[in-house]
Amino acid sequence: MLLYNSQISGNCYKVRLLLAHLGVDYERREVDVADRSNRPELLGGLNPALRVPTLVLDDGRSLGESDAILWFFGEGTPFVPADAFQRAQVLQWMFFEQYDHEPAIAVVRFWLAYSGRPAEEFADRIDARREAGHRALAALETHLGGRDWLVGDGLTLADIALYAYTHVAHEGGFELDAYPAIRSWIERVAAQPGHVPIDA
Amino acid sequence: MLLYNSQISGNCYKVRLLLAHLGVDYERREVDVADRSNRPELLGGLNPALRVPTLVLDDGRSLGESDAILWFFGEGTPFVPADAFQRAQVLQWMFFEQYDHEPAIAVVRFWLAYSGRPAEEFADRIDARREAGHRALAALETHLGGRDWLVGDGLTLADIALYAYTHVAHEGGFELDAYPAIRSWIERVAAQPGHVPIDA
User: Fold this and answer.
1) Is the CB of A84 less than 8 angstroms away from the CB of B103?
2) How distant is the Cα of A43 from the closest Cα of chain B, in angstroms?
3) Which of A13, A61, B59, B98 would you label with B121, given CA atoms 20 to 30 Å apart?
4) How far is A91 from chain B (nearest CA, A)?
């Protein structure tokens, strides 16, 4: 199968990280995340949102949205809990990530570190996103205080989804000094057997 | 069980609509969506995002994120397909809704129709959201052309999730004249047995 991929995208990294844990093989096609002009030709018909990651199975069926791809491969593995309420909690954190965390932390990181444009271009929008990002990190910190994992007793899709942009948040100027529980959790996720870094 | 609810919120309506279809009883506690100052006292400890809907089960466990709540009640019913790929497609549309659709269409609707503040306050932000909203509607229109439902052969959580803010998009100035497939689908969803309107 084929993954339309961006190596620097945390959303793509989520998928690569899960597939590494599961030992699933796939091809990658690298997609430019700064110049998006070829997206309609490249991803039209495959993903209504024209974003990466987009996955194309060997039979031609395609799937968009990082977290939907995670779910497709995660169901039936230890990364999706057997308990129905815990499954909903995993999804709660994945939706939280896409609504509250990613649009702040990933977007500022992209603007400052990967857009290839001067920071001044984003100056009027950064403060609000910075504040939203720290709100999301504070919520994560509170939840992780006294817990090893976001849901249940082991690594789940929720940890994979939140780890992706949290562990590179500093590239967007989000320092994690004030979030000790998050820092321990980052080390815990990275120490799991089968873990791969974002540049792998 | 108790639903922290806002009657005008499409995110809360998703939950009310599914629970109506399923015939599940619950209490509601109405939460102000314009004045959010009491959220930490009200929802702290129940929902890391401090948003509605938040659901509290009779045993005290709580769940946030509209789509996670939908999943919790939808699994094992006809609203979540039995096929694993279709389940992932349902989630794809639900994540699309929360990332691309809701932050544009629901937010502009809130600004213009429910915030109680003059439209001029949002003037510098409306154009980008308006454009993003029409991009999301165009993606929905393309997918619904020739299809009755977003995924498979019947109403699923994907339809419920997308219907919620699409059917009131005009309150944010998003007219649906250019989207005939969406308009037919809206009628189809509303004609289902068990359907309830947003003000019910």
Assistant:
1) no
2) 12
3) B98
4) 5
DSSP structural state of residue A170: G
Instruction: Please list the helix, strand and coil fractions of chain A in percent, rounded to the nearest 5, in that order.
Output: 55, 5, 40
Q: Considering only CA atoms, which of A55, A168, A25 is closest in space to residue A102?
A: A168
pTM more than 0.90: yes
How many Å apart are CA A176 and CA A187, to the nearest integer? 13
Nearest of A142, A131, A145, A141 to residue A166 by alpha carbon: A141
Distance from CA of B136 to the nearest CA of A (A): 8
Is A72 part of the contact surface with chain B (CB cutoff 8 Å)? yes
- The CB-side HSE value for A26 (13 A sphere, CA atoms) comes to 24
- The answer, for B85 touching chain A at a CB cutoff of 8 Å, is yes
ipTM summary value: 0.97
DSSP assignment of B1-69: -EEEE-TT-HHHHHHHHHHHHHT---EEEE--SS--TTHHHHHTTT-TT--S-EEE-TTS-EEESHHHH
Return averaged pLDDT per consecutive 10 residues of chain B, 200 residues in all: 98 98 98 90 94 97 98 98 98 98 98 95 95 98 97 98 98 98 98 97
Looking at chain A from residue 91 to 120, which residues have their Cβ under 8 Å from any Cβ of chain B? 91-92, 94-96, 98-100, 102-103
Please count the other Cβ atoms lying within 10 Å of the Cβ belonging to residue A173. 16
A residues 22-61 closer than 8 Å to B (CB): 48-49, 61
Q: Kindly report the length of chain B.
A: 200
Give the span between the Cα atoms of B18 and B66, in whole angstroms.
Answer: 11
